[in-house]
Design brief:
This protein is mostly helical. It is globular and about 50 Å long.
Amino acid sequence: MKQKSNASYLAGMKRFGIENTNALGIPVPELRKLARVVKTDHTLALELWKTGLHEARMLASMIDNPALVTRDQVNFWINDLNSWDICDQVCGNLFDRTPFALEKAIEFSAREEEFVKRAGFVLMAEYAVHNKTAKDETFINLLPLIEREAWDTRNFVKKAVNWALRQIGKRNDTLKIAAIETANRVLLQDSKSAKWIASNAISELTKKTIS
């Protein structure tokens, strides 16, 4: 991993709001190449996470086996999150594929810590993208949580709330209608964050595609 470090990439991470104190400066595509070489290795993933290195933790999320991930591991890793990109990688590569992904999404959405709360809504978004067989009711039950937390003004939280709302609405026409109805209620909240979340989601979900 040290051989793949890139000083200019490391310096540029800050411009994207990425914490780079314990980073090497390795682009995500390079980490994915490494992951394809390593394949799946739960034990190595746990060891990589313990290093505290930014990219090592990203790689850990790429090579871990979701079938072997426990609730305790999710709780331990989630409390270590210190950057939006690791949050998104861990949720999208690994946690959303565990049997308790929705349970944790609901739990984390009510937490106060910025990246833990973000993780709750990123899990909702990624689950909506990756779980093709989940029933509509599963996502309809998540919409009140999005409505409840739309007030949060923190940038990394509100963007994740918006992301979850949009991805749920994109699954099918039934969920699109439900998501737009939720967005219209959110729009009435006395909060700049809520109004942005709602208006952005409505704009995307009502956009006509040109064939």
